[in-house]
């Protein structure tokens, strides 16, 4: 954990309503951290359905393998998350740990092990002993209560400087339903997946395949559109649970038009959490939104946007409050996507610095410099070729990023 | 320019022999820098042949366009390089500058403008006025002399902390020939091309198409195998000139077995320069060699190696002298190439830290920590799938990188 809270932390945190069918408890297991919670148990009522998306890493953690195997059933009764150790690249020991944890959680909750979901975050390559925290699960299951979302968000933090929560309420098919989510960052954030961990639950009744369709499409413009350092975690996990307790008639068709408001609200929760992750990027002092327009298609626009967002030279320039649009040109050029130097236009906030292949003669260095001192920087590049567009979010690259990551393990 | 010389600067610099058929002169044009040279003229005797490789950026600089257009002729009489301004993203003004510079150089040397080659390095997007230095070319052409290679290397520096030179001599088809090269970095270094600028000349007689074949293949394992920050410059240029004055019978077939020693020597010059660029990477305190073995093929190995080399988390760990092999696992996993977590093995120098999917039980934290204090760090990842292998070079990511790039333009 960092000593000080990010200057980009939210000014206010929403009160998180209890969700019918979800119980939450946390504990100090002492896995790595001292004097803070590092273990989270979420218990779901019978009938809870689940969807998930995971890292595309070819070296996923043992908990990712475990979740993928259980996702096929579509049912969830509990989620166990620990911070301090990722249980990644831990070989047979890692698989034994997830198996044992799954069984202990199943016993604590009174369900089958294939209704358990697991996530671990922290150091890679260190064996994680399930006995360090498994014995706590029974007590946690008994004390789990509905409203402890802020505590849940705090327990899963690693180098995060603030807990990340978001909530929305929306009408769905005859009932008002709630969507609550938590997330944690803060390094190794890049598509795909770009969280490290995020858990979202709703009391809506929605069938698992519909949840999966909603989650897979919403993630493209939210968690898969943020990047801190271009590094993809071995543990990235986003799970969506639906307890079905809100009383709406269960939705079973992903094309059902009644889903639209729910889809939008879910998108807002994911976007809110994803941007919070970026704003707590390691060492971040500024949030950067990159918008690319005029690309040959949306996919091309997103690749160009990520090329800009992942460029160390762009990110250090923003850290230095320097509207160095030349580096944006560089990043457009290296993306490998169709681009025409002589049609490019670039804005920093409202200030157009370049158009038609050269510096905008009307651009004011003074006004742009003043803009760069803000904490939210918006960079737009218009490629001038077509209608493709995309937005992604990142943060600046500061000396603090280097400091945090230069001695994280020790 | 940085205030202090990189601790990784060469301990000794080779004496650069004069090359028959090459004259060199430098000047202080005051384009951006004060009290240092920023203009280089190389003059080549009639009959000099030329080959080149350039940035793959979709937004190349005006000089790159100019060189590409002239390369088809295969003949060179002069090279003009300025530092301080890249003449990139300068629109019509940029093209006018290269046209005017080409004409002024042709007049100074007494040749056609299509035998002129140009390169510019420095800030992007600022117009470059040919009249700021074009009037100096006539005088430089008169005073050009054979041995001024160190001065040439110094004149093309931007944020480099030391000039980069290399030389080799080798027998070729009845004569001893010399290959001299210079290069400059030091940010925006990534494939492809991974220099910013490098110029190599030889007195050998080699036909332009043969030169091109040699250069294109040698660059893959040298300049295209180094990366500082994954950012690709708009100006990357590597030119190879052959004056033909050494007296060897001219080589006209790229498959000629007599070329082998020359090919090896050229490769050595390029490798030497490329690694010097990495060792002068902005803020670099350690050189990192990444070797990947056991990949499904060589191409896959190189992509994995570059994924490791470009990972900010790997680079900051090395900066912090932390043998954080878990981040190497992460970088292998995110490369998108075939990999099997449970077959991976990872070494830092001679120390095997992980094998068969988990931490090596015999690994000594103490010995590895001592190894990490060195200035050359070798990381090897064996993928365990096939015979593919590759080596790439990079440097660590330090707070100084952020400092240098946070206020470069201002």
Automatic annotation (TrEMBL), chains A, B:
<comment type="pathway">
    <text>Amino-acid biosynthesis; L-arginine biosynthesis; N(2)-acetyl-L-ornithine from L-glutamate: step 1/4.</text>
</comment>
<feature type="binding site">
    <location>
        <position position="410"/>
    </location>
    <ligand>
        <name>substrate</name>
    </ligand>
</feature>
<comment type="pathway">
    <text>Amino-acid biosynthesis; L-arginine biosynthesis; L-ornithine and N-acetyl-L-glutamate from L-glutamate and N(2)-acetyl-L-ornithine (cyclic): step 1/1.</text>
</comment>
<comment type="function">
    <text>Catalyzes two activities which are involved in the cyclic version of arginine biosynthesis: the synthesis of N-acetylglutamate from glutamate and acetyl-CoA as the acetyl donor, and of ornithine by transacetylation between N(2)-acetylornithine and glutamate.</text>
</comment>
<dbReference type="InterPro" id="IPR002813">
    <property type="entry name" value="Arg_biosynth_ArgJ"/>
</dbReference>
<keyword id="KW-0028">Amino-acid biosynthesis</keyword>
<keyword id="KW-0963">Cytoplasm</keyword>
<comment type="subunit">
    <text>Heterotetramer of two alpha and two beta chains.</text>
</comment>
<feature type="active site" description="Nucleophile">
    <location>
        <position position="195"/>
    </location>
</feature>
<feature type="binding site">
    <location>
        <position position="405"/>
    </location>
    <ligand>
        <name>substrate</name>
    </ligand>
</feature>
<keyword id="KW-0511">Multifunctional enzyme</keyword>
<feature type="binding site">
    <location>
        <position position="195"/>
    </location>
    <ligand>
        <name>substrate</name>
    </ligand>
</feature>
<feature type="binding site">
    <location>
        <position position="282"/>
    </location>
    <ligand>
        <name>substrate</name>
    </ligand>
</feature>
<keyword id="KW-0055">Arginine biosynthesis</keyword>
<feature type="binding site">
    <location>
        <position position="158"/>
    </location>
    <ligand>
        <name>substrate</name>
    </ligand>
</feature>
<keyword id="KW-0068">Autocatalytic cleavage</keyword>
<feature type="site" description="Involved in the stabilization of negative charge on the oxyanion by the formation of the oxyanion hole">
    <location>
        <position position="121"/>
    </location>
</feature>
<feature type="site" description="Cleavage; by autolysis">
    <location>
        <begin position="194"/>
        <end position="195"/>
    </location>
</feature>
<keyword id="KW-0808">Transferase</keyword>
<dbReference type="InterPro" id="IPR016117">
    <property type="entry name" value="ArgJ-like_dom_sf"/>
</dbReference>
<feature type="binding site">
    <location>
        <position position="184"/>
    </location>
    <ligand>
        <name>substrate</name>
    </ligand>
</feature>
<dbReference type="Pfam" id="PF01960">
    <property type="entry name" value="ArgJ"/>
</dbReference>
<keyword id="KW-0012">Acyltransferase</keyword>
<feature type="site" description="Involved in the stabilization of negative charge on the oxyanion by the formation of the oxyanion hole">
    <location>
        <position position="122"/>
    </location>
</feature>
<protein>
    <recommendedName>
        <fullName>Arginine biosynthesis bifunctional protein ArgJ</fullName>
        <ecNumber>2.3.1.35</ecNumber>
        <ecNumber>2.3.1.1</ecNumber>
    </recommendedName>
</protein>
<comment type="similarity">
    <text>Belongs to the ArgJ family.</text>
</comment>
<dbReference type="GO" id="GO:0004358">
    <property type="term" value="F:L-glutamate N-acetyltransferase activity, acting on acetyl-L-ornithine as donor"/>
</dbReference>
<dbReference type="InterPro" id="IPR042195">
    <property type="entry name" value="ArgJ_beta_C"/>
</dbReference>
